[in-house]
Amino acid sequence: MWLEQHLIGPYQNFTYLVADRDGGEGVVIDPSFGIEPVLTSIDEHHLKIRYILNTHRHQDHIAGNAEVRDRTGAKIVAHRLVPFHPDVVVEDGATVETGGLKFTVRHTPGHTPDSVLFLFEGHVATGDTLFVGECGRVDLPESDPGAMWDSLLHKVVTLDDALVVLPGHDYGSTPTSTIGQEKADNYTLKPRTKAEFLKFLES
């Protein structure tokens, strides 16, 4: 597998290029503002981008969708609850395959109703559900703190400890982590009842 992490845009976003090999088939995950470096890399590495995977609806994660699609012909993939019309609609457990790579969808509402993780080849793209050392905001109009509790403490923590975490923003002490490391160090993943979690978010 071939992977690049691009720090782009004004909000410290990470956009990911993933392919089966240099010069092979692959995807772009969460194309943000200032997508030009990603497009340049696609051209330089002769990548055939088949899909654009969106972890959730926020503009800083979809701003580059149209440019990538126009340049590559890739299809936009997003959860059915997004407020736009992706080319490919997915639900929890769905898979997207290209070039021998398989991306499995895990629905993790909380930050937004449509938030998902994409699991692939020992990695997990977590969008704004999980950052290194932190979780996504739940004080936005479409956020749901109770759903975030369920997503973090019943879904994220059940993932394989060895999975490499690819967050949606460069907000942590390192640009990547592992699920095992986050379970050990990330204070938002500490065991809490739903009531305790909601009170914790208010503190």
Commentary on this structure:
This protein is an alpha/beta fold and about 200 residues long. The protein has a single domain (about 1-200), classed as Metallo-beta-lactamase, Chain A, CATH 3.60.15. It contains six helices and 14 strands. The strands form three sheets. Strands 1-2-3-4-5-6 form a six-stranded mixed beta sheet, covered by helices on one side. Strands 7-8-9-10-13-14 form a six-stranded mixed beta sheet. Strands 11-12 form a two-stranded antiparallel ribbon.
Structural class: alpha/beta
Name the CATH homologous superfamily.
Ribonuclease Z/Hydroxyacylglutathione hydrolase-like
- Helix/strand order, N-terminal first: EEEHEHHEEEEEEEEHEEHH
Instruction: State the helicity in percent bands.
Output: 10-25%
Please write the CATH class name.
Answer: Alpha Beta
The third-level CATH topology is Metallo-beta-lactamase, Chain A
Q: Cα distance, first to last residue?
A: 42 Å
Count of separate DSSP helical elements: 6
- Domains (count): 1
Write the layout of secondary structure elements.
Elements (H helix, E strand, L loop, with lengths): L1 E7 L4 E7 L5 E5 L6 H9 L3 E6 L5 H4 L2 H8 L2 E5 L8 E3 L4 E4 L2 E7 L8 E5 L2 E5 L2 E2 L2 E2 L9 H10 L9 E4 L9 E2 H7 L8 H9 L1
Helix pairs in contact: 4-6
